[in-house]
Amino acid sequence: MCKYRDFFRCFWLLIVGGLISIAPTSLVADNVPRRPNVILIVTDDQRPDTIAALGNPVIKTPTLDALVRQGSVMTRATCANPICTPSRAELLTGCSGFRTGVLDFGKPVSDGFPGIAKPLRDSGYQTFYVGKWHNAGKPKDFGYQKTEGLFAGGGGRWWKDQVDAHGRPVTGYRGWVFQTDDGLKQPELGVGLTPEISRHFADAAIRCVEQADTAPFFVHVNFTSPHDPLLMPPAMEGVYDPQDVSLPKNFLPRHPFPTGNLDGRDEQLLPMPRTESDVRRDIAVYYAVITYLDQQVGRILEALEATNQSDNTIVIFTSDHGLAMGSHGLRGKQNMYEHTIGVPMILAGPGIPKGKRFDAPMYLRDLYPTICELTASTIPDAIDGRSIVPILSGEQARVHDHIFGYFRNFQRMIRTDRWKLIHYPQIEQWQLFDLVSDPDEQTNLIDHPQHQDQVTLLRRKLKEWQVSVDDPCGEFNR
């Protein structure tokens, strides 16, 4: 008897062998049932607490709210390395940056790590890439057969200085342009981010859905929103009044000690010290960008309806990492707090339980084997990610006992269901948080005598993990 985690592969084998039958309406021309399509939507810098249905009383996200009701939410989904390039490389390869060599910007994926599209392509899927590309090479190098709305660097000669919604100079996505996979630049669609850029990505994703033939498809959609620069989208002016926007519960004017990135580009987006007024104004535009993004995701889902493919399409929505937006006195990512290493994670469609929430920890890289399993595609042997299908099925409660995080040589983290230990090896600073009693991570318990056994245990496990991945910071973890 097949276990549930092998259900999809066994199901197709039984169909091909003629051992079970299904209704004719689900058959394609060759009398073999069509495997589910997959649309993987990845946003940029989206905090996990920016979806109304998941507890945010201010933000308006009707499309994502509907996905939450129709599918399952992984409430403890985590990015391991909170910077765009390495986080996206982990999702792309299903492997830790310690193995692929992508631990920071500008690092190419080492040879021998097939992209997530390759096993799907090899098993008969049409594979499409849409949107932001922030890794070395091109999507076609990683198994994507066709790109639409590709957005990457290389348009510096068309760049003109810009300001954001608050009149501050733009420092993100300078000179990025839409382009073809062969490098033909399309500056007429805008240089750098534009207020309506999410619409262009949705248009491209819709073209992919409409171009797909009778074979199942995988469409990987990468939005730039809500990454800075924060620009007011069309028809969003006034939707959010800064006075009605709540400050993060863990708002601080300054972070209490150096993190290794306090002078980084992201942290310079807001004046120091942070003020309540500045943070509220930023969050108001941030929410407006997410609401506009939500509308564009809705257009993609409408295209599935219009082409009669909704019932046979798995939709996965996530982000490459979160963002501080004033929490802990920070503005950007590059930290190990929950608002940043946490990401939204919604899965909906055939084979996915409806209206469920799971608190099992997972990494972004776990999506690679999960998608392979959901589509009966072969999972490469050399992969770090673990499929969460056993969690969705109820066969297992978890696939990870601990989650580890890392940022350059400045930060390391281990998290359990209850505890989080953060290490800043360059300055020998430690933090311990009880995530059950203190989910906003406001009270550092590292020096409390009653928690020293827990500190010792977590430090030992963190050290063991660092040794196992050959972490260059291991020498600091004494």
Compact overview of the structure:
By secondary structure, the protein is an alpha/beta fold. It is built from 11 helices and 14 strands. Helices cover 25% and strands 18% of the residues.
3D structure, described in words:
With 478 residues, the protein is α/β, with parallel strands linked by helices. Helices cover 25% and strands 18% of the residues. It contains 11 helices and 14 strands. The chain has helices at 7-16, 62-70, 84-93, 97-100, 117-122, 197-211, 276-306, 338-341, 367-374, 389-393, 452-468, and strands at 37-43, 72-78, 126-132, 146-152, 177-179, 185-191, 217-222, 313-319, 345-348, 356-363, 403-407, 411-415, 419-424, 429-434. The chain has a 10-stranded mixed β-sheet. Strands 11-12-13-14 form a 4-stranded antiparallel β-sheet, with helices on one face. Helix 6 (197-211) packs parallel to helix 7 (276-306). It is globular and about 65 Å long. The termini are far apart. Residues 1-5 and 11-31 have low confidence and may be disordered.
List keywords for this structure.
478 residues, alpha/beta, 10-stranded mixed beta sheet, 4-stranded antiparallel beta sheet, 11 helices, 14 strands, 25% helix, disordered N terminus
Number of helices: 11
The number of distinct β-strands equals 14
Radius of gyration: 22 Å
- The helix content is 10-25%
Largest sheet: 10 strands, mixed
Distance N terminus to C terminus?
49 Å
Sequence of secondary-structure elements: HEHEHHHEEEEHEHEHEEHHEEEEH
Shape by Cα distribution: globular
Strand content bin: 15-25%
The average pLDDT value, as a whole number, equals 92
Strand arrangement, largest sheet?
6-5-4-3-7-1-8-9-2-10
Which stretches of 5+ consecutive residues score pLDDT under 50? 1-5, 11-31
